[in-house]
Design a protein that fits this description.
Immunoglobulin-like, mainly beta, disordered C terminus, 5-stranded antiparallel sheet
Length: about 300
């Protein structure tokens, strides 16, 4: 006689006279773990005792777009005499053949599968194997179509330069497939450890591979101007770009008709030039130490 827990009652659902298998077509193992008892009945009407029940394995799953995983939980099979020897996770993608993706120990009751194929249907089931006998029990089937939020990658400064009319043009590159909800540019004047918010950045998805921004308020006489792009994706993860910095040029008299120039950031470079030269090699903004020297083309001299 086959009994199943229905609600709070253990009810008989059928009697099997031949064989040792039974198919319960009225069960709902994808919604709950079904609990069964099997009792033997002799010709005199005597029955065996209600011993520990056997329960089906209910496998449930949820896709996490931010962690890029399918997370699964289940109730381990119980009441085997030898206990569980191993548990195997099986996967089919878009209706393909099922393949074993991992083998777990007997105590496992959860598993995270890392998604590599976004938008494809992933169907899983768990196979429990009894220790010593090789008897098996398969869980219910669970299927999900995971969506993955593509994080920002390869966010880097390409160039920062003063334009002839005064503003600084900032150029950067980023991952065109990144799914971001916010982008901004930050600026530090003279000190790269002291960034302040400058402006939000307009964008549309999918992103362009290269973008630019003009800073109309960049000071020219307070040292190098540093820039950083910051983005936040739909999972709330913030990514910061590599740093970009303008060249800062300053000069002072070094005696006679010669002037000494220094420019940076990084390893500051120096050069001497005559204030009568007009051959161009670089341009910049001189500091207020020499208000009489204009920011015109200069030629370094040996």
């Amino acid at each position: 006689m086959i009994y199943r827990l229905i609600g709070t009652n253990v009810d008989i659902i059928d009697t099997v006279f031949v064989g040792t298998t039974y198919l319960d077509t009225n069960a709902d193992p994808t919604v709950r773990s079904e609990e069964y008892y099997v009792l033997a009945l002799d010709q005199c009407g005597n029955t065996s005792f209600f011993l520990d029940p056997h329960k089906t394995i209910l496998l449930e799953s949820q896709a996490d777009s931010c962690q890029q995983i399918v997370s699964m939980q289940w109730n381990p099979y119980q009441s085997w005499g030898g206990g569980i020897g191993a548990q195997v996770v099986w996967l089919s993608i878009d209706g393909g053949n099922y393949e074993a993706v991992d083998t777990l120990g007997p105590e496992a009751a959860s598993y995270d599968f890392f998604v590599t194929e976004e938008g494809a249907e992933h169907c899983f089931y768990l196979e429990a194997i009894e220790n010593g006998t090789g008897n098996t029990s398969n869980s219910s089937l669970t299927c999900v179509i995971p969506r993955v939020v593509t994080p920002m990658e390869n966010l880097g400064m390409k160039n920062t330069t003063f334009l002839p009319n005064g503003p600084v043009r900032v150029d950067w590159i980023w991952n065109t497939q990144a799914e971001i909800m916010d982008a901004s540019i930050w600026r530090a004047v003279g000190d790269p450890g002291n960034f302040n918010f400058l402006s939000t950045l307009p964008f549309s998805l999918p992103l362009n591979g290269a973008e630019s921004f003009e800073d109309l308020s960049a000071p020219q006489d307070q040292g190098p101007v540093y820039y950083e792009i910051r983005t936040t994706d739909f999972c709330g993860a913030e990514v910061r770009s590599t740093l970009g910095a303008t060249l800062f040029l300053e000069g002072e008299t070094s005696g006679g008709a010669a002037n000494q120039l220094r420019w940076g950031p990084g390893n500051w470079k120096t050069a001497r030039y005559s204030n009568t030269s007009s051959t161009a090699s670089s341009t910049g903004c001189l500091s207020s130490k020499l208000p009489s020297i204009l920011p015109r083309p200069v030629t370094p001299t040996k």
